[in-house]
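Deliverable D4.2, example record:
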Amino acid sequence: MPSIARPFRRIIELLDSHRFQQNPADPNWTRSDPVRWIPYIILHAGCLGLIWVGFSWTALLVAAFLYVVRMFAITGFYHRFFSHRTFRTSRFGQFIFAVWGNTAAQRGPLWWAAQHRKHHSHSDEPEDAHSPLQHGLYWSHFGWLTARSNMPTDLHLVPDLAKYPELVFLDRFDWIVPILLGGFLYGLGELLALTAPGLATNGWQMLVYGFFVSTVVLFHATCLVNSLAHTMGTRRFETKDDSRNNLFIAIVTMGEGWHNNHHRYPASARQGFYWWEIDVTYYLLKAMQRVGLVWDIKPVPLKVLEDAKERHRDKAVARAA
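Output generated by the structure prediction step:
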């Protein structure tokens, strides 16, 4: 009976993420779990639909738009708000941001924030679940997401978020919002096929481009911060980890590539510390502050900037010598 019940428990865990059982004694606890591959296999397999659904500029533009708005949801809300609390908003705004971030299909806001806070506490140490220095590039980019040890939401790390039942609900059933988005895109495509045939799109095409392709590209771009931003780039600050600043990653993630800056002072809503460091997420947050959607955006302290200038001068002197 236990062997028969186990697959059903695993399916329940996929449907209700708070049903994960902590079991460090399990010899497979920290290894890749085939069941956890299922959502990622479905997402990537959905991209094969490109072979059959054809091409339209309408679907491509929708995919690009959803990439940008959902990347902002991850970088601005899941990361800078829920994980680091670098600005404030209303409770209703907080809920909208959580739903918005959930459309990216990167699990719930509490799980995401808890994992990221743990990462900062143990960055590039053995306890860091996605350190490329400790576990290799593949594991840091993707593999860690399939280990059962990384599946439970550690509510002790996010007590400030766990007190809101609406956020807990979204975190438990983190598959509902992405499925609703997929259904909406299919319905939108069918509606456009009937009412605006000149746009040359339909439900299946919109689903493949707008959901599967956009979500997979978004997923891997986000994962670059865990993998390449700790292996490739420059280091302005001597942090305890091996975080790097990487312009390419900053562009594709709307500012998250200034990772060494971020690890030097994670409490700031700004990761591109200087005007030439492109940080689109920060610009959008400032625009939201102007219209009153968010407030109390935390800046980079002058002391941190002065430390960077001093370090730059020291390097220049060393090179001259």
